[in-house]
Specification:
The complex is a heterotrimer of chains A (129), B (409) and C (165). With 129 residues, chain A is α+β, with helices and mostly antiparallel strands. Chain A is built from 4 helices and 7 strands, in the order αββββααβββα. A 4-stranded mixed beta sheet of chain A has the order 2-1-7-6, with no helix packed on it. A 3-stranded antiparallel beta sheet of chain A has the order 3-4-5. In chain A, β3 and β4 form a beta hairpin. Chain A starts with 8 loop residues before the first helix and ends in a 12-residue tail after the last helix. Chain B has one domain: Up-down Bundle (Amino acid/polyamine transporter I), CATH 1.20.1740.10. Chain B has 16 helices and no strands. By secondary structure, chain C is an all-alpha fold. Chain C has one domain: Up-down Bundle (Four Helix Bundle (Hemerythrin (Met), subunit A)). Chain C contains 5 helices and 1 strand, in the order βααααα. Chain C is flat. The chains are: A alpha+beta (129), B mainly alpha (409), C mainly alpha (165). Chains A and B meet through β2, α2 and α4 of A and α4 and α13 of B. β3 of chain A pairs antiparallel with β1 of chain C.
Chain lengths: 129, 409, 165
């Protein structure tokens, strides 16, 4: 991706809704991972998700608390905030579209947990209405 | 033909769906104390909600994004979070009031203490949200809410001096013996009752649930410009019958039972039964809307999948928020706080929280990158900006007036 | 070398925090000012008495209206019951709140209190008996008690805390 687009991160990327290949809502762009290239430019390499990404942007004591709780609740193999590689992005418009499906992108452990222990146990959870 | 029926249905549901416990109580209360001299506040609120809802509906149709989704995008995560907390609390307070309203209405029919109804009502609300299809939900409660037209019938039966009533509306005259701060406080309360934020969350999220596209802008507009004015007409009818029956004898409305009394006086038992049906339908419908909206605000801020158009398992966190909100509302009501008092506070806090959600929508509706050709025209903008000034004034004045008048005494 | 876009945030300045704290204290003080007050001035007490009378009047009139409409068959029994017992409870609350207020050290205040209390006791007694008669469905007693409430309502509506004697 030698010839990337120039973007205003604040206006066009941050806090945008991320939508999957089937139109399902995935997450928000809570933060972005930037990587410096050899010639000194910054490339957006990933979308960062969740309280550990959002906490620092909210800032102050509340933000640190958010990030701290999430860190404590995470398992040792998930020390960094969940990320979606920016190569997956197919469109940047009113929402950010990605190529994969929600289920393939493991970014919402809380959702899975709630589903498994609470909502999924209530009769009728498998049918939309 | 089918399209016509769909539009007709939309209009009908809009009328019935746009009166809730806040409108019932606040309008009756104001009518019994001030006659129609505060009708101007309801009318300004009407203009405001029409402008606000039209913009939200148009934004939802063009972008496929609901109101709160855009709030965080436009305001950033910090301001967006403050906005979320305020909006969620106000919506939650309204939710408590609506569930309380259903329970109070059932008490009027059965004489069974309202608190015993609260858990049943909450369960019913949650079950309907969980299982009943969105369109059925809207249509049924919207149509049943039309029962409130009986207030118009009652007004007719009272044979008022129409010119007298019109004069009260057109030439507002604060009654002697009532202080100006209290008068203005109730103006803000009426304004807040007409412009409750959850209506817009629900309207725009509903548009996304129903997969609106550009060609649905016209449906959205018909809903808004017929539904809300007729809802306001019902509100004014409620105020007017209170003014004609209760004001002369010195009754100040502070219970739901008093709201229905003028209908009985004017038109008898059957009319009263229809009015109570209207109370139940309107408050239950509004409880559904506020419950769903409590979930919409949180889910849309964090970007979680929300809505009834997907399987609950795919929107687990959203449904968890709704479920927890229902439980919290029951807990609050079980502290025996008076639901009518909660209602009176909720409309004022609605006025306070209004600018937070109004302003981002105004900005997005103007953004040509988002809206293309459908961005605000000059007339809409003039109106919308004028309303913004009114909304900010009401929001800023609300709390000081509440303190100064001890919440309207 | 990876960095994140949002980490360069500056927290609220110290003066903003102080301002927020001061504002918070002021709001709390203002709110509390409305809750618990020491003995008010004479005119404030008289306003309180006047407001109490009008709130009490509202409850009495609600009960009378409910009973009348029930007699005319325009409202069902359950509805009338809710209205009348609600009015009775609210009336008691209004009376109780007024009695708890410490009157200022002034004979005019004491006069206002005694005269209002007299009317309120009458009203409370009659409302209780009205509710009992309603629940027992004793139409004759209802009619009589409603009639007896009429002068109470009149006195409440004419009540003037500043009147002498």
């Amino acid at each position: 991706m030698a010839d990337g687009r120039q973007l205003d991160l604040q206006l066009q990327l941050l806090d945008r809704q991320v939508v999957d290949a089937g139109g399902r809502l995935v997450c928000k762009v809570d933060d972005l991972e930037l990587t410096a290239t050899d010639d000194g430019r910054l490339l957006v390499t990933a979308i960062l998700i969740g309280p550990r990404a959002l906490g620092p942007r909210i800032g102050g004591r509340l933000g640190r608390w958010m990030a701290g709780i999430a860190q404590r609740l995470s398992t040792p193999d998930r020390q960094l905030p969940p990320r979606i590689d920016f190569g997956q992005v197919t469109d940047i418009g009113t929402a950010i579209a990605i190529a994969r499906r929600r289920s393939e992108v493991d970014v919402a452990p809380l959702d899975d947990w709630v589903d498994e222990h609470l909502i999924g146990r209530i009769p009728g959870a498998g049918h939309a209405s | 033909m089918k399209r016509l029926l769909a539009v007709a249905l939309g209009v009908l549901t809009a009328i019935g769906g746009f009166v809730d416990i806040g409108d019932l109580v606040t309008n009756a209360l104001v009518g019994s104390r001030y006659g129609l001299s505060l009708a101007w506040a309801t009318l300004i609120g009407l203009v405001g909600i029409c402008v606000f809802a039209e913009m939200s509906g148009r934004v939802a149709a063009v972008t496929g994004r609901a109101t709160f989704d855009l709030v965080r995008e436009r305001l950033g995560p910090r301001a967006g979070l403050a906005n979320l907390v305020a909006s969620f609390l106000v919506t939650g307070l309204t939710f408590v009031a609506e569930i309380g309203g259903v329970a109070l209405s059932l008490e009027l029919v059965t004489s069974v203490y309202y608190l015993l109804w609260v858990p049943l009502v909450a369960l019913a609300v949650w079950l309907v949200i969980w299982r009943v299809r969105f369109s059925v939900l809207e249509n049924v409660f919207g149509l049943l809410g039309l029962a409130l037209i009986v207030f118009g019938v009652a007004l007719w039966q009272l044979h008022p001096s129409w010119t007298g009533l019109l004069h009260q509306v057109a030439v507002p005259h604060k009654p002697d013996g009532e202080g100006t701060p209290t008068y203005l406080y109730y103006a803000i309360a009426l304004f807040g009752a007409a412009m409750t934020p959850y209506e817009v969350f629900f309207f725009s999220s509903g548009g996304v649930e129903e997969r609106w596209t550009r060609k649905d802008i016209i449906t959205s507009r018909i809903n808004v410009f017929i539904g809300f004015p007729l809802g306001a007409a019902l509100s004014l009818a409620i105020a007017a019958v209170s003014a004609l029956v209760l004001l002369p004898v010195g009754v100040n409305v502070d219970t739901l039972g008093q709201v229905g009394l003028p209908v009985a006086v004017a038109a008898g038992k059957i009319a009263l039964a229809v009015a109570i049906l209207g109370f139940v339908a309107a408050t239950f419908g509004a409880a559904l809307e506020t419950g769903l909206s409590a979930g919409y605000t949180v889910a849309q801020y964090f970007g979680w999948q929300w809505g009834k158009y997907v399987r609950p398992r795919e929107a687990a966190r959203y449904h968890a928020v709704v479920l927890l909100s229902v439980l919290a509302a029951v807990a609050v009501l079980l502290t025996t706080v008076d639901p009518v008092k909660v209602t009176e506070y909720s409309v004022v806090f609605s006025a306070v929280a209004l600018p937070l959600t109004y302003f981002p929508i105004l900005v997005v509706a103007n953004d040509p990158d988002y809206m293309g050709d459908s961005a605000n025209g000059r007339v809409t903008n003039a109106l919308a900006t004028g309303m913004l000034v009114v909304i900010v004034v009401a929001s800023v004045a609300a709390i000081p007036l509440m303190i100064a008048t001890k919440a309207g005494q | 070398m990876a960095a994140t876009a949002g980490t360069a945030r500056i927290g609220p300045s110290a003066s903003r925090r102080r301002l927020t704290r001061v504002a918070g204290v002021l709001i709390v003080l203002a709110a509390l000012g409305g809750c618990v007050a020491p003995a008010p001035s004479l005119s404030a007490y008289q306003s309180k008495a006047a407001r109490t009378a009008s709130a009490a009047l509202s409850e009495v009139q609600t009960a009378r209206l409910a009973v009348r409409q029930a007699q005319l068959g325009r409202i069902p029994h359950a509805y009338a019951d809710v209205l009348v017992s609600g009015a009775e409870d609210a009336f008691a609350a209004v009376q109780g709140t007024f009695d708890l207020v410490q009157p200022p050290d002034d004979p005019a205040a004491d006069k206002a209190r005694t005269s209002l209390d007299e009317i309120l006791s009458d009203g409370a007694d009659l409302l209780g008996r009205l509710r009992i008669a309603l629940r027992r469905q004793r139409a004759d007693q209802l009619a009589r008690l409603a009639e007896q409430l009429a002068p109470v309502a009149a006195k409440l509506s004419e009540y003037d805390p500043a009147a002498v004697g």
